[in-house]
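Incident log, structure service

09:12 report received: a user says their structure output differs between two submissions of the same chain.
09:20 pulled the input from the user's history:
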Amino acid sequence: MVVSAIVSSFKVKRIFVDSGKAVEVSSWNAYRKIRLKEQALSKASPFYGFANHPNEVKGSITLSFILGDDKHTTTEYVQFHVIDHLMAYNAIFGRPTMRMKNMVIATFCMKIKFLKKTGVGFL
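09:34 re-ran on a clean worker, output below:
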């Protein structure tokens, strides 16, 4: 499922929510559009893609993100691995974010539910 979120005070579109990924990934292009400096990245080890080839990781950084619509929002901090690789999406939310927010994807309804302090939020 593809969603939008506010990441580090910028609206980021085309975020893929993937229950099969073990890490959160951001594309280098999206990282540059957020106007963060490369020096802010921490060193990170490469990870392996679908074809079992290593993807070079520029680094990792912890950023805030806001999920939800006007009524149902939640804010969290997530560690993104920034890669300089052609991607169809600006970012990928994987299992760590899904577990952190107790997200459930209902593809037949085209909705994502997540827990927030005052109830349940929807995307």
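09:41 both user submissions now match this output. Likely a transient worker issue. Closing.
09:42 reviewer note: The chain has one domain: 2-122. The chain has a mean pLDDT of 85.
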